Amino acid sequence: MTDDTLQRLWQDQPARKEDTALLIALLREKERGFRRAIAADLSGELLFALSFGAVTAAMAWRASTPSLSLGFGMISATLLVASAIIAFWRRRIVREPSVDASISEHHAALLRVYDSQIRFLRSVKWWYGLALLGGGMFVLNEAIRGTGVPHLGALVLVVLAWLAIWYKNDIREVRQIEALKSEVAELLRGT
Amino acid sequence: VTTEKARDARFETLLSDYGPAIRRLCSAYVDRTDSEDLFQEIAFALWRALPNFRGDASERTWLYRIAHNVALGYARRLRSRRNVSADLVPDAAAPAPSTQHGELLDAVRRLELADKNIALLYLEGLTAEEIGSVTGMAPGTVAVRLTRLRRKLAVMLGVEQSR
What pLDDT tens digit does each residue of chain A (191 aa) get? Predict the structure, then answer.
């Protein structure tokens, strides 16, 4: 079989008439949806932190001692700052490399993006961990002394949330990215 | 508005010139049920990239770069979602096509991903240099890979290779 025969065999198929007007309308809608999806992803992160920030702010307001107020206040403030920093970085890091580069360049860039994403995901727990380390000490101290026992529940809730964040980012998401990364690396070796 | 109209017109030309080739590419990367979805993903990527196309590369290589990068990413995500490790998610329900084109499609679909994109570019009639520009490989390497691929395809199709 010659090159021509193979290429003709591949290409000589009845071509489908594309409805370009409909497709363009669909693409415009998809473009709008794409922007909305990115915004929703970012606001999800912020909303999560804001909810916990609000709970701890309420605990600070209702706290029985100044030390407890300070502790919860610090947790709340750090959560807000951490979430703003995380949302900012996430926005930069979710961007996939340009698809109009050659296949090997695109995949090399993709590997770099995956590495950045993994580094970022593994760092999230420390940002939120700061909130616990800072303010949590005050709350824990009060709880141990017996004055802040009712507030211990809130602290446990924050710790559980931190564990959930750690599991979601460090275990689940990193595992998914590692799988994609090894596949891209394999493909890159073949090109 | 003028820019939007120019973009629409350019996109229409692209689609009329390369629509069938993109359809063939989709059918080689994914099964029939996902083919339309992949076609739209590629169209979307082209649509978004179109305003940035400055003509540094030929339109043909630019388009195939985008189409293959999107298709490879799509197939990767699909496999990750379905948790399978094959080079393609073959349409198990679809009977093996009995036409010669169907047999060729089957053979291409069975190729490893790194071979598949070279095979598809070759079947669309791109030169070794153009394939090199799309894949990022040196034209000499492409030529060597093409020789091996032609032999492999001939074996898979059970035909004599005359070149």
Answer: 666 788 888 888 777 777 888 888 888 888 787 777 766 666 666 777 778 778 878 877 887 777 777 777 887 888 777 777 777 777 666 667 888 899 999 999 989 988 988 888 888 888 777 767 666 766 666 666 666 566 677 677 778 878 888 888 888 888 888 888 888 888 888 76
Do residues A155 and A167 lie in contact, with contact meaning Cβ atoms separated by under 8 Å?
no
**Strands (E) located in B95-138:** none
Closest CB to B8 among A9, A24, A105: A24
Q: A residues 25-84 near B, CB within 8 Å?
A: 26-27, 30-31
Query: What tokens does A136 get?
Result: 């949590």
* Cα of B85 vs its chain's centroid, Å: 20
pTM: 0.77
Quote the ipTM score. Answer: 0.83
A3 contacts chain B (CB < 8 A): yes
Q: Which residues contact A113 (CB under 8 A, 6 or more apart)?
A: A93, A95, A96, A97
Which residue of A8, A22, A27 to mutate against B (max B Cβ within 10 Å)? A27
* A-contacting residues in B 137-156 (Cβ below 8 Å): 137, 150, 153-154
Task: Copy the structure tokens of residue B150.
Answer: 């032609």
Tell me whether residues B11 and A20 touch, CB distance under 8 A.
yes
**Cβ contacts of A93 within 8 Å, gap of 6 or more:** A113, A116, A117, A120
Q: Does A85 touch chain B (CB under 8 A)?
A: no
A72 and A135 Cβ atoms separated by less than 8 Å: yes
Picking from B15, B45, B101, the nearest residue to A20 by CB comes out as B15
Q: Confirm if B114 and B127 have CB atoms less than 8 A apart.
A: no
